[in-house]
Amino acid sequence: VIAAVNDSLAVGVLTQAVVYGTPILFAALGELLAERSGVLNLGVEGMMLVGAVMGFWAVQRAPGPSALVLVLAVATAAFAGLVMSFIHAFLVVTLRASQIVSGLALTIFGGVVGLSSYLGNDLGLADVPARYQLGELNVFGLKSVPVLGPIVFDQSAVVYASWAVVAAVSFYLARTRTGLNVRAVGESPAAADAMGINVTVYRYAHVLAGGALAGIGGACFSLAITPGWTQGVTGGAGWIAIALVIFSFWRPELCLVGAYLFGGLSGGLPSALQAHGYTVTPEFLNALPYLMTIVVLVLVSTGLARRRLGAPAALGVPYVREER
Amino acid sequence: MIRVERRLTQPRWLSVAVPLGSVAVSFLVIAAVLAATGHGPIHTYRRLFDAAFSGSAAWTATLISATPLLFTGLAAAVAFRMKLWNIGGEGQLYLGALTAAGIAIWLGPGVPTAVTVLAMCVCGYLGGALWALIPGVLRAFARTNEILTSLMLNYVAGLLLTYLIFDSASPWRDVSTVQARSFPQAIALKQSQFWSTITASGVVVPLGFLLALGVGAALYGLFRSTRFGFEMDVIGDSPRAARYAGMHTRRKILAVMAISGGVAGLGGASQIGDFAHVLDASPQGLQGSNFGYTGIVVAALGRYNPFAVCLVGLLLGGLQNAGLYLQGADFPSGLVGVMQGIILFCALGGELLIRYRVRLGRRAAVVESAPAAESP
Q: B278 in helix, strand or coil?
């Protein structure tokens, strides 16, 4: 009976929702940190793609035991995302460029026909089988517990890491002095500056942290989900992550819920349906996450949430001390 | 000490000199990247230039690459000028291609070419405009972020194309032969439906390119000397001021989205009529060429000025064409995208010099006891 429950369609969808929601969760938490400090970064998709390709490169080339190689690969992906986000931080914080255009430029630069594809082809990573991958862990041997077993206890390490990051970001923003300072910088940089907070340093730090998390999000695809690298492997997950930040009213706990909702739609439902032998027009299933994102955005932007509940007041506005 | 202060007036020459300077800087950066990855910079630049702009064959190929970029660049420029971030040019171009191919198939080869061309243009424009109106309406009436909705619709449009050609018995699909039924493809246009070309000193100029230049000129006139264009600028610079002045912001959002999407849709029509002659839904077809996203680069580099957008479109078209021509082991795909990105980053950084004055010298508040020994 237990086996039947755990093989059912509902459990399958929920398990896959966690798998596919994890990269979106990492990227959304990163974007949330950057936006809380007042910087909009539309380059998430580009940073994820570069993170994905560099993470996979590290897994293929790094020496050592598999666990060490995988840790190294995730670190490489994070570093790649961080370097990408530095370009954005420099352009918008130091050079005061338009945050929207700079973010778009970052996505185009890193994107499907840009750096990620250049690196992937130049390093010979396309359609190569992965040496190692992040497998399911079977925590405490509870894999076969009904319902919760496959969903909660049989996931890869990045899933558990993402929960830790949610808790950490949530604690950081609500309970630490630096976290409160970040929120001040995002709400009113002039007031924060008057308090003696270095706005530039805070914005740089959080854009870079966001880039690193986006890179890890990309690595979830190339190390766990696919695993491997193909052109445009993230398939718009970076954009969904940006929508998720709006959907979660800039709160990390709600990001967790939203990520699994979008994860369920973008990968969970199609792969679970396929595994159970249902035939649904694939294009319709694939379009579902994008359409649902639009619906969710419309719901969030009308009605109760009309006043952009939770949006940092200084989001998207460059801070120039001389002009405050 | 470096000080940065806002310019009260922006000299005209700066808005030409700074972009040119930025492009020069970006070429140096790209040269460094090329050298670092083991390609000789001067040799690579030379090959790129020859493949793009040397001789009539190169120019013919460059115009083919540039035409869609002119359309998508102008489409993005119209919307971005009003700070309406329509990044759905990609999907709007697909829809334009879809509707234009549809009307051509419906009319059949017996109709005069001029009628076919006109019908394709009208339908392509409408297809793109209607697709753009989805995020437009949501933005105007529900204040939904148009960046995300227009982008999401790009993916949906791509899937729609795939569905119509590969997974359904749509009127676009060719089911006339056994081979076409087992390897799905769209109905191809007949010779008499191809858009005409003009040959000038060996260079084949497609009709779509001339149409794009016409659209550019029309937009230039719209921005420069109509009330509509003026109101666009006001709404873009200060939505609040526009509202106090009694401008109809909602109507303007809808109109601008329709124009932007329509121009991208025209690009799709031209793609079918001028070049592809068949609606290619495979990953190597329309969906692999990223015209819409490159159009954003073109618009940003042209600083949303239609004249400059056309010029930049031609240059980036040349780069794209050269990239395709040289693609191979020593010139991996993706390098062109990297180069475009670097050019755009440098141009964005250069914007600072247009809006701000950078001064080397003393600080504003000089300590009084310090002697007045300042450098000139």
A: coil
Q: CA separation (Å) from B79 to A239, B146, B214, B221? A: 20, 11, 18, 16
Helix A252-263 to helix A237-247 angle (10° resolution) is 130
Residues of A in contact with B6 (CB under 8 A): 320, 322-323
pTM of the prediction? 0.90
Please provide residue B173's backbone torsions phi and psi, each rounded to the nearest 5 degrees: -85, 140
ipTM rounded to 2 decimals:
0.88
The answer to whether the CB atoms of A109 and B340 lie below 8 A apart is yes
Instruction: Check A322 against B143: CB less than 8 A apart.
Output: no
Contacts of B54 (CB under 8 A, 6+ apart): none
Q: Which two tokens stand for residue A61?
A: 């080339």
Please report the sign of the dihedral spanned by the C-alpha atoms of residue A74, residue A77, residue A79, residue A81. negative
Q: How far apart are CA B376 and CA B365, in angstroms?
A: 17
pLDDT for res B12: 79
DSSP secondary structure letters along A274-314: HHTT----HHHHHHHHHHHHHHHHHHHHSGGGTT-TT--TT
Please give the share of chain A, as a percent, with pLDDT higher than 90: 52
In chain B, residues with a C-beta closer than 8 Å to the C-beta of A258 are: none
- Give the per-residue pLDDT at B184: 84
Task: In whole angstroms, give the CA distance from residue A82 to residue A46.
Answer: 12
CB contact under 8 A, A286 and B297: no
Q: Of the candidates A116, A1, A124, which has an alpha carbon nearest to the alpha carbon of residue A47? A: A116
B297, B335, B351: residue with CB nearest A108: B297
